[in-house]
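User: For a teaching handout, I'd like to show students what a predicted protein-ligand complex looks like in token form. I'll give you the sequence and the SMILES for pyridoxal-5'-phosphate. Please answer with just the structure.
Assistant: Understood, here is the input followed by the structure.
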Amino acid sequence: MSAIELKTELPGPRSRALFARREAAVPRGPYNACSIFVKEGKGAVVTDVDDNRLLDFAGGIGCLNVGHANEEVVKAATAQLGRFTHGCFHVTPYESYVSLAERLNALTPGAFPKKTVFANSGAEAVENAVKIARAATGRPAVLAFEDGFHGRTLLALSLTSKVHPYKAGFGPFAPEVYRAPYAYCYRCSYHLTHPSCAVACVDALEDVFKRYVEADQVAAVIVEPVLGEGGFVVPPSDYLPKLRALTAKHGILLVADEVQTGFGRTGKLFAVEHTGVVPDILITAKSLAGGLPLSAITGRAEVMDAPGVGGLGGTFGGNPVALAAAHAVLDQMETGALFARAQAIGATVAKRAAAWKERSPLVGDVRGLGAMWAIELVKDRATKAPAKDETAAVSKRGYERGLVTITAGTYGNVIRTLMPLVITDAELGEGLDVLEACLSEAGGA
Ligand SMILES: Cc1ncc(COP(=O)(O)O)c(C=O)c1O
């Protein structure tokens, strides 16, 4: 049986009516990748209000590694809803906050004492990581990377690299943010080639410390182990270890932003585990609570204890319903089955994507780690001119056929895969067939 089942053209009449209401009632600012309205979701399939069944390769931007309406998540959250929905950890604390902190302290890399504080979103986790790093080091500056994405609140947005649509019109931005190129080998800023470059982009930070900011004024380097919004860029395996060594040399804290890469997406619980690198602070959100809003900042105990009492927190941070869901997610992660599944999904996507690249000049680069795959489209393989319109067309055609995908990349020319890891082989194959047909229509594959 086909997972995709379309009863109407997309969007159907009910979705269209809702979209008209959405346009009248909600500002245009929050973009919509598609204009169907969801009635329910299960696993990797969403059913819209017109009873169309669509395959989901986006997972609410990577929040649903355990799948839509995951049974254990629903059970745990529902049970917690019946006990108490909120107390505020600052006012009347509860055990699930402490026990989830204990679990994350144990599961994150690093055999040293750790502590965890909870917030609600990825951006809030980023903000807290910077506050903590500044308090711990007494230094003001933060270094982030080109093509990096860290969220939309003001400090997080200051760390985010992409101007349109994220930053344009929203300045002035937070001070003491510096930036250097990431290891985006397909579009190397230094026009070098790995491995002969010896990861020169890390050496280039020494230059930043000479030209822009003294190293001893830098509290933290914040890095995504694989770029998310920036185009699913997988750095070479010696990049993060070299970055770790450089930050250690200068007493700079390394913050790994695992908001998008975490919880099995790359085939391990955290993407840094592929490299052996141990960050000082690791931040998570998205798939942590299976679709409920929760983020975590986990780090060296002495670093995490730097801010004074009352310096961290917030009304909803570590909401008990979200915490219950996160415990259910971790229960499933701990079996390791989803990591193996992510690797298997990645292997299937890699094989298909390699064939597309072979067949079509539109496909400039394919890359991935675990189930986090990118198909980067170019107008011309020699110039690598980004094929933004073609990428949008592939995603739109896919949606019209019942496949939900989202794009990425500073140039908007990357199709990314964030399907729930519980997707079946048949569903995965069907989704990739649709993607292949759409690529083919756009002049590729
Ligand atoms: C790597 C990374 N950091 C931070 C964020 C911000 O998370 P949120 O949208 O939950 O604020 C995102 C969101 O996509 C992300 O991918």
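For the handout, you might add this sentence: The pocket of pyridoxal-5'-phosphate is lined by residues 61, 121-123, 126, 149-151, 224, 228-229, 257, 259-260, 285 (CB under 6 Å).
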